[in-house]
Specification:
The complex is a heterodimer of chains A (142) and B (120).
Chain A (H helix, E strand, L loop, with lengths): L1 H41 L6 H7 L3 H21 L4 H7 L2 H13 L6 H18 L13
Helix pairs in contact in A: 1-3, 1-5, 5-6
Chain B lengths: L1 H26 L7 H11 L3 H23 L2 H9 L2 H10 L7 H17 L2
Classes of the chains: A mainly alpha (142), B mainly alpha (120).
Chain lengths: 142, 120
């Protein structure tokens, strides 16, 4: 029965998309935080390529890079079946996690403006999350 | 310096994402995740011209991002990285031929506004 198999396939793709979206978001948020933390400790290092490569040996920067490698691989896998116009908005929930974790770790209170921003992002992510992850059925020849 | 970095960051990230989506669609859905399958997928992707273009652009994006966070606060760097949302959605429609319905346009617009608010 083609109808049933299509539904099963869609359900499978949706579950796989959820799992990979979660890994993409967490590795990106954790990776960028570790990287930023490391770069702040190093201070202004200048523009020389050697200094930039040297920065990669700082432990926090190295942890950030390792997480961003995981991000790269899972992001590539996710884009092998899901649309970019789906992946990009849905992974934007990472901005909310970054804002909340930053404010939680620094013990700051979340302002009204920030709550509105968090609400808008969450609404946008939910709206896009309701669409089918893969619509680009047309094959584009190279 | 800051303006140049912002321009490079936005342009390189947009190019990197769009080329990555294109290259991965050409590769096809990744279905198996055992080490052997991952190794052969990586080997095929290393010779995919869109993936090579994407990875080069992402490297430029990465170094401009770490330069930017070392001279500007995160509250500035974060909304800058979200500035790619609208141009990438347009390119997804025009270049990747994705069906971007009203929910995706509205979602992208809400998120862009939200990011501006949380970074102030």
């Amino acid at each position: 029965m083609p109808a049933t198999s299509e539904t099963t396939d869609q359900a499978r793709l949706r579950a796989k998309t959820r799992l990979f979206t979660a890994i993409v978001v967490v590795s990106n948020v954790a990776g960028n935080s570790a990287l930023t933390h490391g770069m702040k400790q190093l201070g202004d290092i200048g523009n020389s390529p050697l200094a930039l490569i040297g920065a990669l040996f700082h432990p926090w920067v190295a942890l950030g890079v390792a997480l961003l490698i995981l991000w790269t691989l899972t992001h590539m896998a996710l884009l092998s079946w899901a649309d970019l116009s789906y992946v990009l908005p849905v992974t934007a929930i990472g901005y909310v996690l970054t804002a909340l974790s930053g404010e939680y770790l620094l013990g700051e209170t979340v302002t009204m403006e920030h709550w509105v921003g968090i609400l808008l992002i969450t609404a946008g992510v939910t709206l896009v999350g309701l669409t089918a992850p893969a619509t680009a059925t047309e094959h584009i020849p190279l | 310096m800051k303006c140049v970095l912002v321009f490079i960051l936005v342009a390189a990230t947009t190019l990197g994402d769009v080329a990555r989506a294109r290259g991965m669609k050409n590769h096809g859905e990744v279905r198996e995740f055992h080490p052997g399958a991952i190794r052969s997928a990586l080997w095929a992707l290393a010779r995919n011209k869109w993936v090579i273009l994407s990875t080069s652009a992402m490297a430029v994006s990465f170094f401009s991002f770490i330069r930017l966070v070392s001279i500007a606060p995160l509250s500035f760097a974060v909304p800058v990285s979200a500035a790619t949302l609208i141009p990438e959605t347009i390119l997804a429609r025009l270049f990747l031929r994705e069906r971007v319905d009203w929910r995706r346009w509205a979602g992208a617009a809400l998120i862009a506004m939200g990011v501006v608010l949380i970074s102030r």
